[in-house]
Design a protein that fits this description.
mainly alpha
Length: 74
């Protein structure tokens, strides 16, 4: 077990390992941003539909988690 820990510690301190870790973190951040953006776009589509059907902005905000200001600008 000690050999495995020592080997891991050695590998994890290399510049290649650090670069791969940085790239994985960057990819996860991009993925999270894309997902949040897609959710916001979907909420905007739903809000437009609800607004056109006559629902008031306060109720739309409750259902879509958009702000009332965002809804009023649609």
């Amino acid at each position: 077990m000690k050999k495995a820990v020592k080997a891991y510690n050695h590998v994890s301190t290399t510049s290649e390992f650090k670069e791969l870790s940085r790239l994985r973190l960057k990819a996860r951040c991009k993925e999270a941003f894309a997902l949040a953006n897609a959710r916001h776009e979907k909420a905007t589509e739903i809000a437009k539909s609800l607004k056109s059907s006559g629902m008031n902005a306060d109720d739309i905000a409750k259902h879509t988690k958009l702000t009332v200001d965002e809804i009023l600008k649609l």
